[in-house]
Amino acid sequence: MIVLDAIERDFTVGDEVVHALDQVSLELAAGDYVSVMGPSGSGKSTLLNVLGLLDRPNSGSYRLEGVETTTLNEEKRAALRREHIGFVFQAFHLVPRLTAADNVALPMLLGGIAPKERERRVAEVLESLGLSDRARHRPDQLSGGQRQRVAIARAIVMRPALLLADEPTGNLDQHSGGEVIDLIEELNAGGITLVVVTHDQAIGQRATRRIRMVDGRVDSDTRHART
Amino acid sequence: MRAPDLLQFAAQSLAGARKRTLMMLLAMSIGVASVVLLTALGEGARRYVVGEFASLGTHLLIMLPGRTETTGGAPPLFGETPRDLTLDDATSLLRERSIRRIAPLTVGNAPVSFGSREREVTVLGSTRDLFPIRHLTLGSGQPLPDIDPQRAANVAVLGPGLRKELFGGQRALGQWVRINDRRFRVIGVIAEGGESLGQNLDDMVVIPVASAQALFNSPSLFRVLIEARSKEDIEPAKRAAREIIRQRHDGEDDVTLISQDALLSTFDKILRALTYTVGGIAAISLAVAGILIMNVMLVAVSQRVAEIGLMKALGAARGEVLRIFLVEAVMLAASGAVIGLAVAALGIVGLRHVFPAFPLTPPLWAPLAAVGVAVVAGLVFGVLPARRAARLDPVKALTGR
Ligand SMILES: Nc1ncnc2c1ncn2[C@@H]1O[C@H](COP(=O)(O)OP(=O)(O)OP(=O)(O)O)[C@@H](O)[C@H]1O
Ligand SMILES: [Mg+2]
């Protein structure tokens, strides 16, 4: 489903070139549960951004569902993001002036989906995430855990095949972090491909496929039975 | 994004930044309101003047002694003392078929008294035809008698203001007043409100032209009012009048003829230009408001970097982000314009209340142009911030790098 081949992503800072991703080749199958770990600055976020089509590699090939994405124009990449990819960020990134329901509806708004259908799907997703009674709340009226659950609702409302989470529990306490992980694992059990970047050993160990990055390279890539 | 969603989204984000939005609305509405109000004043002045001219008379020509050269050239060697216009000159004009009637005018100042009350007023010497030519209506009594203009008669028609000052509540008709030591019998009083442009007849007294010439000891006329038979006759009447006077003045073309139409269209042009000018000046404030919009939108973009990154992550292409911010800018401008129109409407109602006689109406183009300029300003000055937003790199935007 996802094939990365010799992906290179360089940043030039001053006269120094940083290889954030250095010849990364990777295949992800549909339904994979992948954790990405590694020291700070090893290129985890960069990898996730490339996977999410937010960032363009300098060279290499990235095929998503058989489509070569590196040659697509901005418009087509945006459409692919909208239809196939959901993001969950450490900082939640909810729009503060919008209610939980409106935040969740945002991708559908951008996708031009009719209001009736939007309402129905927002209600459905909030219901399944146990957030129905928070639909009219604005982000500042929600706890951290609730905010991240709203963000997850927004990430999956377009029913993407791929869910990318960059340190989703980084701003949460142990308990709500656990809840968020439970939630995205449930989604993975439902068939969504899940990639989680994390510093938390315990969380990383829960994935069935564990990638370790060092200096922009894939250092190890191991598969494990579900615990 | 669907159009209604786009509008709602823009409205929400404007409502989210309340202070900024209110400031912008204020700037834009002041601009629009001033355009509409100022052009309304200009247009009102134009209508007022046009209306005043219409009350002067319909097919009116005014003849005055002396030639006003507008063609330039060297001044004549011999001193240019134009010949006086005389009563005979005036009556000879009646030979011309296209001229319906004429009214010679002499003007002077003299004390008018009744009993112990005395006023220094303007004395008009004329004939009976002055009344129809100037559309003067009488409040009571008779106009000047229909006599040979060369004949003096000791009768007078008073302006309503003068009547009040001299007679108070007393009956004026039939009484004798003194003008410069001559006695005149009051035979008529002009109706209240008989005003027209340039001359307020309120405080005047009208006597037969020959009497006035005797009074001021001068045979020359100040003006001759000429009424043509119809609108089409104005030009022939003008030519004929000039020719008649030229023959009488030994071939010397020494009178000036002003047609009301020419005067009117000159005033009309001047006042229209004035309206455009004040409208244009006020439009500058719209441009200033546009620049303010640009600033405010730039601030908005920098404050909403994370949101823009998010929208891109959620699948908004550059064009979409551009549209969102442009719609916000235009919406800001358009709502400011609508508020401005409301303010202007209130202002006009208020001014009408204070000056009921002044025909205060904005020309139709003014509100349309003001709103148009406001929206275009929003669009033009919204482009730069919107492009900045559209070009943001989503990764950098989301990480705040
Ligand atoms: N926009 C950028 N400009 C310059 N250098 C960058 C940029 N983005 C990333 N880098 C560099 O690329 C390398 C990889 O960065 P990345 O953010 O992927 O690391 P990470 O593994 O996510 O680290 P962390 O665990 O701290 O989040 C780092 O050395 C970083 O400094
Ligand atoms: Mg990172």
| Major protein interface | A-B, 30 and 26 residues
CATH fold call of chain A? Rossmann fold
Unreliable segments of 5+ consecutive residues of chain B = 70-77
**How would you classify the quaternary structure?**
heterodimer
Distance between the termini of chain A: 25 Å
The unique ligands bound to this protein are: adenosine-5'-triphosphate, magnesium ion
- Tell me the total number of β-strands of chain B: 10
Summarize the structure.
The complex is a heterodimer of chains A (227) and B (401). Chain A has 7 helices and 10 strands. By secondary structure, chain A is of the alpha/beta class.
Notes on the protein architecture:
Chain A has helices at 44-51, 74-84, 100-110, 115-128, 144-156, 174-189, 201-204, and strands spanning 2-13, 16-28, 33-37, 59-64, 67-68, 85-88, 162-166, 193-197, 209-214, 217-223. Chain A has 227 residues and is α/β, with parallel strands linked by helices. Chain A has a single domain, classed as 3-Layer(aba) Sandwich (Rossmann fold), CATH 3.40.50. Chain A has a six-stranded mixed sheet, sandwiched between helices. In chain A, helix 5 packs parallel to helix 6 (174-189). The two termini of chain A are 25 Å apart. Helices cover 54% and strands 17% of the residues of chain B. Chain B has helices spanning 3-16, 18-56, 87-92, 130-133, 160-167, 209-216, 234-248, 260-303, 305-313, 318-354, 365-391, 394-399, and strands at residues 60-65, 99-114, 117-126, 138-141, 155-158, 176-179, 182-190, 204-208, 223-228, 255-259. Chain B is built from twelve helices and ten strands. Chain B folds into two domains: 3-52 and 265-398, no CATH class; 104-223, no CATH class. The A-B interface holds A 45, 49, 52, 54-55, 74-75, 78-79, 81-83, 87, 89, 91, 93, 95-98, 106-107, 109-112, 114-115, 154, 158 and B 1-2, 5, 9, 12-13, 15-16, 306-307, 309-320, 394-395, 398-399. Magnesium ion binds at residues 44-45 of chain A.
